[in-house]
Amino acid sequence: MEAYLESLDLLEAVEEDYDVFVLPDNPIVTQIKIHKEKKIKKAKTKSCLFACVSQNVFTRIMTLKSAKAIWDYLKEEYTGDERI
Prior knowledge:
It is built from 5 helices and no strands. It is mostly helical. The protein has one domain. The N and C termini lie close together (10 Å).
């Protein structure tokens, strides 16, 4: 899973739980672009994590708010499992 997220350039969203900053009143184009990229990256990461688990696991993680929280839960839950 880590390799999959890295190939999509989404691994930083689970390694670093960064906040998407609020845009100022008169944002410049660069600020808008960065804001949009970070917001999309976090959403894509959550979507990938949701898609890769079974329905039973999904019901346990669907209430978690951030990709980092989901990633940490999955790592804790499945560390030491022979199939992982």
